[in-house]
Amino acid sequence: MLPSETVSICQLSANDLPLMEGLLTVFGEAFDEVDTYSSSRPSSAYLKQLLGSDYFIVLAALKNGAVVGGIAAYELRKFEQERSEIYIYDLAVAAAHRRKGIATALIQELKKIASVRAAYVIFVQADIGDDPAIALYTKLGTREDVLHFDIAVE
Predict the structure, then answer these.
(1) How far apart are CA 19 and CA 103, in angstroms?
(2) Sequence-ordered list of residues with C-beta below 8 angstroms from that of 87, at least 6 positions apart, any chain
(3) pTM as predicted
């Protein structure tokens, strides 16, 4: 259970660039990909445009004003029906703050946003061997075994 007096969840907007920068740092450290998340960071103008868009959703978990976790998701508007689905692209909690309900709280807040946007599902992928992520997503959703392919852009 998330202790509400110590950690808060907020949705980032175009005015929250310092928090987004903090979240990029958390993602880099949590995924052991500091170079990916730090060496070529987007410009402030790019991040401001992205955070101000209607398709990008970012939630940050804050403790004493510092980012300790977060989620980055995209709303994908469907064409076959007037509905959308939400794709969780990144979800991470800093090592010192794990196993305290923060990831679950982030997903629960995303579910509220998805409901307001009339999304019918939230989906996420987990890497084979990432047992904590698989356990979290199994607790919250239904597992589908699919194949993922990266197609290079030439």
Answers:
(1) 17
(2) 73, 74, 76, 122, 123, 124
(3) 0.89
- Residue type, position 19, single letter: L
CA dihedral 53, 56, 59, 65 (to 10 degrees): -40
Alpha carbon distance 144, 130 (integer Å): 15
- Compute the distance between CA of residue 114 and CA of residue 78 in angstroms, rounded to an integer: 14
d(CA 103, CA 69): 8
Distance CA(66)–CA(50), nearest Å, equals 21
In our burial notation (b when 16+ CB lie closer than 10 A, e otherwise), range 96-109 reads: ebeebbbbebbbeb
Q: How far apart are CA 72 and CA 90, in angstroms?
A: 5
The answer to whether residues 37 and 71 touch, using CB atoms and an 8 Å cutoff, is no
57-116 pLDDT per residue, tens: 999 999 999 999 999 999 999 999 999 999 999 999 999 999 999 999 999 999 999 999
| Maximum CA extent, the chain | 50
